[in-house]
UniProtKB/TrEMBL annotation, chain A:
Component of the GINS complex. This is DNA replication complex GINS protein PSF1. Pfam families: PSF1_C, Sld5. Its main location: nucleus. Residues 143-193 form the DNA replication complex GINS protein PSF1 C-terminal domain. It comes from Petrolisthes manimaculis. Belongs to the GINS1/PSF1 family.
UniProtKB/TrEMBL annotation, chain B:
One of its GO terms (molecular function) is chromatin binding. This is Cell division control protein 45 homolog. Its main location: nucleus. Residues 133-158 are annotated as: Disordered. Belongs to the CDC45 family. It is found in: Nucleus. One of its GO terms (cellular component) is DNA replication preinitiation complex. Residues 133-149 have a biased composition (Acidic residues).
UniProtKB/TrEMBL annotation, chain C:
Keywords: DNA replication, Nucleus. GO terms for cellular component: GINS complex. The keyword Nucleus applies. This is DNA replication complex GINS protein PSF3. InterPro entries: GINS_A (IPR021151), GINS_bundle-like_dom_sf (IPR036224), GINS_Psf3 (IPR010492), GINS_Psf3_sf (IPR038437), PSF3_N (IPR055221). The keyword Nucleus applies. It is found in: Nucleus. CDD domains: GINS_A_psf3, GINS_B_Psf3.
Length: 194, 557, 204
């Protein structure tokens, strides 16, 4: 059946969810483009004939055209959905993605991510007067300026405020300002205790 | 330096600053740290809490964090070590110590500035006077130099000879004083209690903190660390606080909040979470008095239960499955029969906590549960994670951790009972002259439980009392016990833990084994690690064990 | 973010993965006109062209493109939307295992409406009635099941109903957090947990 390869791309995206992005499937994309090319060539030839008066080519032309549309839709949906996931990752993982996810992005996607990063950073800087507002912080309304956190794994030194550092060793408990350790809690290095 | 006013000299000093807290992995220490943590949170004092288990843990933790803060607090660790020497803190660092181990090192007590001791010394704790232990050293050096310079003429001068004799005498005197002072190690009052006092003076006390203080004090009672009269005093003070904070009736407060009650409690381990018979069998007091491992003992137990009118079937089920009327009358029934069966101290004043519709849990139950969480039967939990577990089990809303601890505690107590039974059946408690001696054989499957300080001490006490109750001569009551068990939790192979406890006939809980072990190890150059803060336990290499014991015997006879 | 083009929606959306998958379901069609050089689409036939009268199962997207105005093929409703199953659904919709029947029941049904011809109205009504009857139990179970049960409860629902179920569960969980005053506790982000879980299983 026509357009099956394109569907594979969609199925691949459907199978992976939440923090996993499969590697950019250049292979299948190339195959889909080839199929589109073939269909287009065949249609070109048939349209030439049909324009000369042969109406019997009409059904094939429409069929192939539908297949071309479908392929285009699948490709665009694939690219669009990947971009949306990458955008969501910026808000979940922070401005630096884990290495294995980065390996799965193609070059244009990496560029897109960097540009999005810059955009977001400059937007956040422009909010408010005092040098900006970090929108990725405080995903839930905080109740307290300081929080008690427990360290889940060894992380080394971490700067808390001007000049003050904390050594984050496994199984130690700390009482720190929320602004300083919010990012680490989201990354799973610290755990908030209540 | 000894601190008398905790509020002014400790709390107000650290307000607005960062403090690093190093906590010993014992229940009292963890309770104290929880009380302090809630105080610090109220005043936004930034803190970091690091659990430590041994001396080397303390030193390495201090090394790692030395740049991070100007103030350090040591809870239940380090009081008996010369801190300035061992940790070599930088000049501007202040170390506060709240340690219930005694004797506190004289260098810490008399340190002018860097080391501040928060623990309050009781009246019966005598500290050597400053002049007896420290002395101006400069004048002596000058004398030495001037002696060398002026040659032979000076050497035979009366004055110098006199001075040298006095100096020698002073040193001998000092040596004797220090030896007497450090010979016996014991425990002072609970650190958690001290921290609760501080909270009270700051008017920040509440029922939660009080409960933690109670659990800390109960640890001393359950593990028989504090002396009877000190126990009674502490209980009295706590009772005052309990009645102050708990005088409102049930109806006027939301059901979910903590209520502490003070009542006479049975000295049976975990009896509310176990069956009555099992609990009696595994409790130190009841089991050793009734000799429940013998057939006669079993019969006596059944007699006792029958006399009280408790059906045997019900006593073998879980306590919560017993009839409600029987449960209510249990305490009074036991109290009546206690004289006849030789269990006069079966009831003792204690505290229990209830929250909402859950069953009441006694403070001793918390202590057993926490002790089991500290030394878990699972092999993959690190000591620091275990300390966090204990902190969790004390927290609100984490009942599943407490349950897990109680289950673990049941396993621990069963293992102890089995081992004691083995010891007595095979007559493995031998008299080695000045003390009794027992070894847990290598390869015992329960050895995993005993490679941990709390459990090992419990086993030692159980064994000693059991042995004393069955032995014919009166002498065994006056002998202390040394127990050794293969250390299967240690990283190095072929090590064992050696634990010494004082004899049962003595009331005072002072233990001379700390010093004795140290001297015996030195004399025989054994590979011993005096790592633990509870000095009556050391880790020894198995090969050196026999010569170590020979040295110990000759030392103590 | 609420109008994101790729979210599963109740109306077909160009970028929606759900929609692309739904329109891939097969519809039985009969060719009314010959399609030249496309004989390869019919594995059983031998000719180069698709002759008039060839019966073939085409994916819905293709069927719609060819059927509606150009009438190159004529379509029938797929088995699961025909008389027999309609009767079953009318009898008691709440008990039917919709997932095995057709995982994209509602979306596919909507796409089939122009193809249904005279049965269009009945099909439309069927879709609405089925959802109405099943909705009550979905709401109930989503707000009242434990985490372990949730998997089994979901097994008989189609994709649309599953997304409703999951939304209900999320609301329930958020409500619980708020009631127990733990709503402000910052937790590790969901993606990070999943990512770490995967890394851990790969390493070990």
């Amino acid at each position: 059946m026509l357009s099956e390869k394109a569907l594979e791309l969609i199925k691949e995206l459907d199978r992976s969810k939440d923090g996993k992005l499969p590697a950019f499937n250049e292979d299948i994309i190339r195959k889909v483009l080839e199929e589109m090319n073939t269909l287009f060539q065949q249609n070109q030839r048939d349209v030439g004939e049909a324009a000369a008066g042969e109406i019997r080519y009409f059904p094939s032309i429409h069929l192939r055209h539908a297949a071309l549309d479908r392929n285009k839709r699948c490709l665009l949906a694939y690219l669009y959905n990947r971009l949306e996931r990458i955008r969501a990752m910026r808000w979940e993982f922070g401005s630096i993605l884990p290495a294995d996810i980065r390996a799965n992005l193609c070059e244009p996607e990496t560029q897109w991510f960097n540009r999005y990063n810059k955009n977001l950073a400059s937007y956040m800087r422009s909010l408010g007067e005092a040098g900006g507002l970090d929108l990725t912080q405080d995903t839930k309304p905080p109740k307290n300026l300081y929080v008690e956190v427990r360290c889940l794994r060894d992380y080394g030194e971490w700067e808390v405020e001007e000049g003050d550092t904390v050594v984050l060793q496994k199984d130690t408990t700390h009482y720190l300002p929320l602004a300083a350790c919010h990012h680490l809690i989201r990354q799973g290095v610290l755990e908030q205790v209540e | 330096m000894l601190v008398s006013d905790l509020r002014k000299e400790f709390y107000d000093v650290i307000k607005g600053k960062r403090i690093l807290v190093l906590v010993h992995s014992d229940i009292d220490g963890i309770c104290a740290s929880k009380i302090l943590q809630s105080l610090f949170r109220a005043d936004h004092i930034l803190y970091t809490v690091v659990p430590v288990k041994t001396r080397s843990d303390l030193v390495s933790a201090f090394e790692q964090h030395r740049e991070q803060a100007r103030y350090f607090l040591l809870l239940n660790c380090g009081g008996c070590l010369d801190l300035v020497d061992v940790l070599s803190p930088p000049e501007d660092v202040k170390i506060f110590v709240a340690d219930n181990h005694r004797p506190l090192d004289v260098c810490n007590i008399y340190n002018g500035d860097q080391v501040r001791i928060l623990s309050q010394l009781g009246e019966d704790e005598e500290v050597p006077a400053f002049e007896d232990v420290f002395r101006e050293e400069e004048s002596e050096d000058e004398d030495e130099d001037s002696d060398e310079e002026d040659g032979k003429r000076r050497r035979f001068d009366e004055e110098t000879l006199e001075r040298r004799r006095a100096r020698r005498q002073w040193h001998q005197q000092r040596h004797k004083i220090i030896f007497d002072y450090t010979q016996f190690s014991y425990y002072g009052s609970s650190t958690a209690m001290l921290m609760f006092d501080l909270a009270w003076k700051l008017s920040k006390d509440n029922n939660e903190l009080l409960w933690w203080a109670i659990v800390g004090v109960t640890e001393g009672q359950v593990f028989e660390r504090t002396e009877q009269d000190r126990c009674v005093l502490a209980t009295g003070t706590l009772q005052g606080h309990v009645s102050r904070l708990n005088h409102q009736t049930q109806d006027s407060q939301p059901l979910d909040c903590l209520r502490i009650t003070f009542e006479k409690e049975l000295k049976l381990a975990l009896y509310r979470h176990w069956s009555l018979v099992e609990s009696m069998r595994h409790s130190l007091y009841a089991s050793t008095t009734l000799k429940l491992w013998t057939l006669r003992g079993e019969k006596r137990l059944q007699e006792l239960l029958a006399e009280m009118g408790l059906p045997l079937v019900q006593c073998r089920q879980l306590y919560s499955g017993m009839d409600v009327n029987l449960r209510q009358d249990l305490r009074s029934l036991l109290e009546e029969k206690s004289e006849k069966y030789g269990l006069p101290d079966l009831l003792f004043p204690s505290f229990s906590a209830s929250r909402g519709f859950r069953i009441k849990v006694g403070s001793a139950d918390y202590v057993y549960s926490a002790a089991a969480l500290l030394e878990p039967p699972q092999k993959d939990i690190t000591p620091t994670a275990a300390a966090l577990d204990v902190a969790d089990c004390l927290a609100v809303g984490r009942e599943e951790v407490l349950e897990r601890g109680i289950e673990g505690s049941k396993q621990q107590l069963s293992a102890i009972y089995r081992q004691v039974q083995t010891f007595l059946d095979m007559n493995q408690v031998i008299s080695a002259g000045p003390f009794l001696y027992a070894t847990v054989i290598q390869g015992t499957p329960d050895a995993w439980f005993f490679s941990a300080p709390h459990c090992l001490t419990l086993l030692a006490r159980f064994t000693l009392r059991a042995h004393v109750s069955v032995s014919r001569g009166r002498k065994s009551g006056a002998l202390p016990l040394v127990l050794t068990s293969p250390d299967v939790r240690a990283a190095q192979p072929d090590t064992c833990l050696v634990c010494g406890i004082p004899p049962t006939s003595e009331d005072s809980r002072r233990n001379f084994f700390g010093k004795a072990f140290e001297q015996a190890a030195e004399k025989t150059a054994s590979r011993a690690e005096l790592e633990f803060f509870d000095t009556n336990i050391i880790r020894l290499s198995v090969d050196d064990r026999s010569k170590f014991f020979d040295a110990l015997i000759s030392l103590l006879s | 973010m609420s109008a994101a083009l790729h979210y599963p929606s109740y109306y077909p959306s160009y970028f929606s993965i759900e929609d692309i998958l739904a329109t891939n379901e097969k519809v039985p069609c009969k060719f009314e006109k010959t399609a030249c050089d496309l004989g390869f689409l019919d594995p059983s036939g031998g000719s180069k062209d698709l002759e008039v009268g060839t019966k073939l199962e085409l994916p819905c997207w293709l069927a719609r493109a060819l059927a509606s105005r150009r009438q190159i093929v004529s379509c029938q409703l797929p088995k699961t939307f025909r008389e027999r199953y309609r009767e079953i659904l009318k009898a008691d919709a709440a008990l039917v295992d919709l997932h095995t029947l057709s995982p994209h029941f509602y979306e596919l049904g909507q796409h089939l409406l122009p193809l249904a011809g005279p049965e269009g109205t009945t099909l439309g009504l069927l879709l609405v009635e089925t959802l109405r009857e099943r909705l009550r139990s979905i709401m109930d179970t989503s707000l009242n099941t434990t985490e372990d049960d949730a998997g089994t409860r979901q097994s008989k629902l189609d994709q649309l109903e599953r997304s409703l179920f999951l939304t209900g569960r999320k609301t329930f969980r958020d409500h619980q957090l708020w009631l127990s005053r733990r709503a402000h506790i910052v937790t590790t982000s969901y993606m990070v947990t999943q990512h770490n879980k995967r890394k851990f299983s790969e390493v070990s």
